[in-house]
Amino acid sequence: MGMRHVVVTGGGTGIGRAVAEAFAGQGDQVVITGRRKDVLDDTAARLGRNVRAVAFDAADPVQVEAALADLPERVDVLVNNAGGNTDFDADTADDLAGLAQAWRANLDANVLSAVLVTEALRPRLAAGGAVVNLSSIAAHRGGSGSYGAAKAAVEAWNLTLAQELGRDGISANVIAPGYIEATEFFRDRMSEQRRTTLISQTTNGRAGTPADIAATVLFLASPGGVHITGQVLHVNGGAVTGR
Q1: 179 an active-site residue?
Q2: For the chain, which terminal residue's Cβ has fewer other Cβ atoms within 10 angstroms, N or C?
Q3: Is residue 28 very low, low, confident or very high in pLDDT (cuts 50, 70, 90)?
């Protein structure tokens, strides 16, 4: 395939970092983005010369616009990984104003981040390339309120994106991970009982890893994944089964 230019949002830690490492490991040039410059710079330094960092908030249109000068002129693969459940960092809403704020926070972090970065880079997406968006098992099983709803919105938007990008031979797919260990997602709030429950819901009896997701991203962006578009791939050990 030759060297490609890859952009990974939320690339400083967890799944995003694993994705960046996987692409860099096969010789691609990778730009990782996120809000925390120190974390991004440290990750880029550790992952080597194929990885560089550009810090900005993907949900802020002004910052996305300003970052364009530092992003590649041609993008072969865009991985919209930035997001997370903002409810973990907020107080419980006790009135409608608080509820609205909580919902907007998750929609901004998970939906707008992907939409804005994709739209900003749209003229730079190379024919035959790939966009991979990250959703969650939460979009399919309930219990997580605005976060699950936001990820479901990402999946609905991806259908439109696939239609729009298809004419240029660019694929657009979603990966919906189940429980993934070794990320910052749960903010160290995962109890052993909860962890055991989540693993027991899988059919293969183990938690997922960032490397599991990275391998799926690599496949979708490879020649083997070229005819897959507009799809949601569930990578969850069978905790939620598709058909």
Answers
A1: no
A2: C
A3: very high
Select from 109, 96, 102 the least CA-distant residue to 154. 109
Q: What would the two tokens of residue 159 be?
A: 């259908």
- Give the separation between CA 144 and CA 239, rounded to whole angstroms: 16
Q: Say whether 167 sits in a helix, a strand or coil.
A: helix
Catalytic residue among 103, 147, 179, 185: 147
Which residue spans within the chain are E strands per DSSP?
Answer: 5-9, 29-34, 51-55, 75-80, 125-134, 171-177, 232-235
* Rounded CA separation 51/24 (Å): 7
**Residues 49-95: pLDDT tens digits?**
999 999 999 999 999 999 999 999 999 999 999 999 998 877 777 89
Residues in the chain: 243
Alpha carbon separation from 46 to 39, 91, 220 (Å, rounded): 11, 35, 25
CA 232 to chain centre: 13
Q: Please, what is the Cα angle at 71 between 231 and 6, to 5 degrees?
A: 40
